[in-house]
Design brief:
The structure holds 2 protein chains of 2 kinds. By secondary structure, chain A is an alpha/beta fold. Chain A is built from 13 helices and 8 strands. Chain B is mainly alpha-helical. The chains are: A alpha/beta, B mainly alpha. Chain B: Belongs to the WRB/GET1 family.
Chain lengths: 353, 214
């Protein structure tokens, strides 16, 4: 490579082999292949760095990780069958809220007062479960729990957490949480500074909750997360899209929002590409027409995002489900897909039973 | 004569300031915020130009070019918003200064002049042009009107002092004020003259506005 060659590699090799990244977000418009891409990134990272532990979390309320791997995951992290260093977790807001509800009941004791009866009926979960943004808030709480556990050396330690995020709007709301919470806690701190003792007495019962202490602890954690999320060596966002106008438009919007949050974003995965010119086995008019349209937008992407890693992924003959298929597909994130040499792979994906 | 000219000048200056208040932002921008206001205008023009260029480009056919224009429009919007905030803060400071200058150089001197020299005769009109009962007011100001009931009581009820139609002399009034009240001309004092002139100018302005539908 000459000194003047400033082209960026069209793959995610640098991210996959990165030893500094702790948080990797994978997001984009609905239906573009976020789950497949996030699973692929997680698998490649786990294969490239077998000495580290990786956790793949789905923050999408409509979870797909279990479907992608063909095995059931829950709110507790569980290793993927066939991988020693990759675990998956699907955050379930209703289950998490039920846990909170049960905790509140346990703390309230058997006082038999109105509040205890209400909580035992699952009222807290019912009340809060349908608040808009609750999914993002619970995902964020999960992130904070991980940071805390890692610092205290409790439980399983994960070197990198990959997030399979919800469609764009939800994700942006999630990423705004550190800033929003930080401002909220600042305001609350001002109020609590004046009315602290009164607020403590409001908790009532036999609890001795130090509200100020808890708020300060929460604020410190939130600040830590903010710092980590805005550190390009620790956090990055991988945008997933398809080569169509609406998807590109939303990707651009997402990238501009992420830049405004000071979040590093330098990778775009373009899925579902036909590469019809190089496909000798399948040569229909419809595919050629669609490929022509995709090429038009691919040229635009190359021009617009010349300093991004733009990874071009093929549309496969079958669904990419199960660990074996994901492994085959995910190779193209590490070493870019060659339509001539790798064409056979897209027909080799085994049908998941 | 000098007092007459001075009062006409002062009334018109006050009226001019009042008119200019309607265009206050432009005046303030011209005097205080020259750079910020012109920069804002320049950015506004640039944004408009970019927007029109973007509208002429098809997003589907030239997505990259459209998006680059969109980014520039977004950046300009952010700068415009920032400049507007700066200009608003600058205008607020300038308004405060302008108000102080207005008070110090116009309002206070006019008030002082009215209180101190309000009874100085400025012009004279033929006696009898206005009802005789008004001539004391014209000659000595609104205080004469306030003192009229007391004068009525003193002259009519108690039967002492000059008649109601005669001159009502305020304590400390100059001698020529009393003499002028009984002559063929009726003097008009500074306070009444300024009040009348201001009212005439205001009325003329209203007529012109109504006729021209401004």
């Amino acid at each position: 490579m000459s000194d003047l060659d400033l082209s960026v590699e069209p793959n995610l090799h640098s991210l996959i082999t990165s030893s500094t990244h702790k948080w990797v977000f994978v997001g984009g418009k609905g239906g573009v292949g976020k789950t497949t891409s996030s699973c692929s990134i997680a698998i490649q990272m786990a294969l490239a760095q077998p000495q580290k532990q990786f956790l793949l979390i789905s923050t999408d309320p409509a979870h797909n990780l279990s479907d992608a791997f063909g095995e059931k995951f829950g709110k507790d992290a569980r290793k993927v069958t066939g991988m020693d260093n990759l675990s998956c977790m699907e955050i379930d807001p209703s289950a998490a809220l039920k846990d909170m509800n049960d905790m509140a009941v346990a703390q309230n004791g058997n006082g038999g007062d109105g509040l205890g009866d209400l909580l035992q009926g699952g009222a807290l979960a019912d009340l809060t479960g349908s608040i808009p943004g609750i999914d993002e808030a619970l995902s964020f709480m999960e992130v904070m729990k991980h940071i805390k556990r890692q610092e205290e050396g409790e439980g399983e330690k994960y070197d990198t957490v990959i997030f399979d995020t919800a469609p764009t709007g939800h994700t942006l709301r999630f990423l705004q949480l550190p800033q929003t919470l930080s401002q909220l806690l600042d305001k609350f701190g001002e109020i609590a500074g004046r009315f602290g003792p009164m607020l403590n007495s409001l908790t009532g019962g036999n609890q001795n909750v130090d509200i100020m202490g808890k708020m300060n602890e929460l604020k410190a954690n939130v600040e830590k997360i903010k710092q980590q999320f805005t550190n390009p060596d620790m956090t990055t966002f991988v945008c997933v899209c398809i080569s169509e106008f609406l998807s590109l438009y939303e990707t651009e919007r997402l990238i501009q929002e992420l830049i405004s949050y000071d979040m590093d974003v330098n990778s775009i995965v373009v899925n579902q590409l036909l590469f019809a010119d190089s496909d000798a086995e399948h040569n229909c008019r419809r595919c050629h027409s669609r490929w022509k349209m995709q090429k038009k937008y691919l040229d635009q992407i190359d021009e617009l995002y010349e300093d991004f890693h733009v990874v071009k992924m093929p549309l496969c003959a079958g669904e990419i489900r199960g660990l074996n298929n994901l492994k085959k597909f995910s190779k193209f994130l590490d070493k870019e897909y060659d339509p001539e040499a790798d064409n056979k792979v897209i027909y080799e994906l085994e049908e998941q039973k | 004569m000098p007092a007459f000219v001075a009062t006409v000048v002062v009334v018109f200056v006050l009226k001019l300031v009042q008119w200019l208040s309607g265009y206050r932002d432009n005046v303030v921008d011209a005097l205080w915020g020259g750079f910020a206001a012109s920069k804002l205008k320049e950015l506004g023009h640039e944004r408009q130009k970019l927007y029109l260029e973007q509208q002429s480009v098809s997003a589907k056919d030239e997505y990259a070019r459209w998006t680059k224009l969109n980014r520039r429009v977004g950046q300009l919007d952010a700068r415009l918003s920032e400049m507007q905030t700066q200009l608003a803060a600058q205008r607020k400071r300038a308004h405060a200064q302008l108000s102080k200058l207005h008070t110090v150089f116009l309002t206070v001197p006019v008030l002082v002049a009215k209180f101190w020299k309000g009874k100085v005769p400025v012009v004279s009109i033929p006696a009898g042009m206005f009802p005789r009962v008004l001539e004391p007011v014209l000659g000595q100001g609104w205080a004469a009107a306030a003192l009229m009931p007391a004068k009525y009581v003193v002259t009519t009820v108690l039967g002492t002092g000059p008649t109601v139609a005669g001159p009502v002399v305020a304590p400390g009034a100059a001698a020529d004020t009393v003499n002028a009240a009984t002559s063929a001309t009726a003097p008009i004092c500074l306070a009444i003259w300024m009040w009348a002139l201001t009212r005439v100018v205001d009325t003329a302005e209203d007529v012109v506005r109504d006729l021209c539908n401004i």
